Amino acid sequence: MQHAIQQIVDGFAAGSIYGALALALVLVYRATGMINFAQGLLAVASTYIAWSVWRAGSPLIAAVVLAVAAALVLGAFTERVVIRRFEGGPPHTAVVATIALLILINGLTGSIWGYVSQPFPSLFPSGTVTVGGVVLAIPSLATTGVLIVVVVLLQLLFLRTRLGLALRAVADNADSSALSGLNVGRLLMVGWALAAALGALAGVLIAPKVYLDPTMMDTILVYALAAAVLGGLDSPLGAVVAAWIIGVTENLAGTYIPYVRDDLKIGVPLVAMFVILLTRPQGLFGRRKAARV
Amino acid sequence: MSPDATNILELVDVRAGYGRAEVLHGVSLTVREGGVTALLGANGAGKTSTLRAISGMVSATGRIALDGKQILGSRPDQVARLGVAHVPQGRGTLEQLSVRENLLVGGYRRRDRRAVAVQIDEYFDLFPALGSRATAAAGNLSGGEQQMLAVCRALMSRPRLLLLDEPSLGLAPRMAEEVFNTIGRLQRETKLSMLVVEQTAALALALADTAAVMETGRIALRGSAAELADRDEVRRAYLGD
Predict the structure, then answer these.
(1) Which residue in A59, A266, B136, B171 could disulfide with B175, CB within 3.0 to 4.6 Å?
(2) Inter-chain contact A176–B92, Cβ cutoff 8 Å?
(3) What's the CA gap between B156 and B120, in Å, rounded?
(4) B211 touches chain A (CB under 8 A)
(5) Do A292 and B143 touch (CB under 8 A)?
(6) What span, in angstroms and rounded, lies between the C-alpha atoms of B38 and A67?
(7) Domain CATH number, residue B23
(8) Range A181-195 average pLDDT
(9) Taking CB atoms and an 8 Å limit, are A180 and B140 in contact across chains?
(10) Are B205 and B38 in contact (CB under 8 A)?
């Protein structure tokens, strides 16, 4: 039992990392109606920035804050310089452009920082706490805690602020929002910037576990996509809950189903995506698009 | 026509199109300060494109002047901030947002938040169908309710000029009449300048003081609303005589 609870807590921690990247995907999807396949690589680039700053002697927390700030700029820049040229055109073109970006950023990070995996320090102390006889790893608890704080902040942003209202309006109907005087281009840029910042957070949370290299987020992107699809692409809360479900399921399956183990764990999100797309395409929390004339 | 100081909106030889296909072939049109101009015509005559050109939703050439100042070339959000509110065809409802949020978006550019809240409450009193569902998703309202919401949302910006695109579209005749009655009442109370595009000519002519008829991207007829309502060709083509 003790072992199972630890597996579940670790599952929540892993799920929190998928969730952070899934939130980034959802933000972009809500704003522009497309999947940004370069989201993971933007996160990698931001994490490298944190790593460089930290290696230069800065305290880790300062490096992370700086990387998140750099990610805001990177995301805004990507929207302004690349994606905006495809807005209003066929959505598939823009998606292909994000795949091109993925390849480009992969090459850029590789040529700047190299392809050798680098150890990345954890933001959290590596100790354990004992709760009711169960030993829990502090990093796992802290990672989950960070994501909960992020979700609460995002919900507050979307539901309680003027900026959030404007972001939701543009996601709902950009043309119509412009007629009310909303600067759609700038709001999309803000959406992409926020998404990149979330990605940066996911990057610095996962890097201590998997080591930092340009392909670090590739697998995580699969999990995040699965979580976003499972939760409903337009639902931030759904994405996070789904990410936790995936993280916990994957961990339990890897531990207790002999055939799965570590090698086949990646199958869990794929199967989840497959089933959900067949049975409930709008996701667990997503809204079915209803049209009324 | 010489530029008239009392015209809030003036279009001179406006041409616009989508890609290479030109759909407006030189449209000239005015709306008087405090007046209502009806823009009539068949499907595809270019009425909606005219409104879209004014709002900057399609690029155009010629002259589009608000208070004598050229606004052609501005983005839709910039035109909106100059005091032009546009209720697009299909109403532009923000479907996933609540009724109240739709109105808040309408007043987004205003700084007097308290007055915004007061105005929303006024509309909720005036239109109980909206008030009783303030927190419901706007996409769930009926067509007529969404049309009233769209008009109220446009008015939330305190516009100087309201562009209405086929407010009767998709509504039952009685509902359409009710919508027009309400718009007429609001117009008389506030003396708001309006440009109304409408296929149901009788409704629009009752509201307007001046009118123009469009045919294939040009203004074919213009005059006072009363004059046009008496013209045989208008009666036959648009009034069902």
Answers:
(1) B171
(2) yes
(3) 8
(4) no
(5) yes
(6) 56
(7) 3.40.50.300
(8) 95
(9) no
(10) yes
**Residue of A180, A182, A186, A289 best to disrupt the B interface, most CBs of B under 10 A:** A180
| Whether pLDDT at A240 is above 60 | yes
| CA distance, residue B76 to nearest chain A CA (Å) | 6
Instruction: Note if the pTM is more than 0.80.
Output: yes
Look up residue A16 and give its two tokens.
């929190």
Which of A179, A287, A293 faces B88 most closely, judged by CB atoms? A179
Whether B70 maps to a domain, the answer reads yes
Please determine, for residue A170, whether its predicted confidence score (pLDDT) is greater than 70. yes
- Asked if B41 contacts B219 with a C-beta cutoff of 8 angstroms, the reply is no
Q: For A172, which residue in chain B has the nearest alpha carbon?
A: B94
Query: For chain A, give me the number of helices (H) and strands (E)?
Result: 11, 2
Residue among B96, B106, B170 whose CB faces A293 most closely: B170
Task: Give the residue among B9, B6, B7 at the shortest CA–CA distance from B66.
Answer: B9
Q: Do A182 and B105 touch (CB under 8 A)?
A: yes
Contact list in B for residue A173 (CB cut-off 8 A) is 92-95
Query: Do A166 and B108 lie within an 8 Å CB cutoff?
Result: yes
Q: What is the pLDDT of residues A33-87, one digit of tens each?
A: 889 999 999 999 999 999 999 999 999 999 999 999 999 999 999 999 999 888 7
Give the closest residue to B219 by CA, choosing from B11, B3, B8.
Answer: B11
Strand B210-215 vs strand B193-197: parallel, antiparallel, or unpaired? Answer: unpaired
Q: Read off the tokens for A184.
A: 């759609």
Model confidence band, residue B72 (pLDDT cutoffs 50, 70, 90) = very high
End-to-end CA distance of chain A: 55
Residue A288 has pLDDT above 70, yes or no: no
Contacts across the A-B interface (CB distance below 8 Å)? 80
Question: Inter-chain contact B97–A180, Cβ cutoff 8 Å?
Answer: no
Tokens of B144: 């007529």
* pLDDT above 60 for A116: yes
Q: Given pLDDT bands bounded at 50, 70 and 90, which one contains residue B6?
A: confident
With CB atoms and an 8 Å threshold, state whether A165 touches B101: yes
Per the structure, the count of domains in chain B is 1
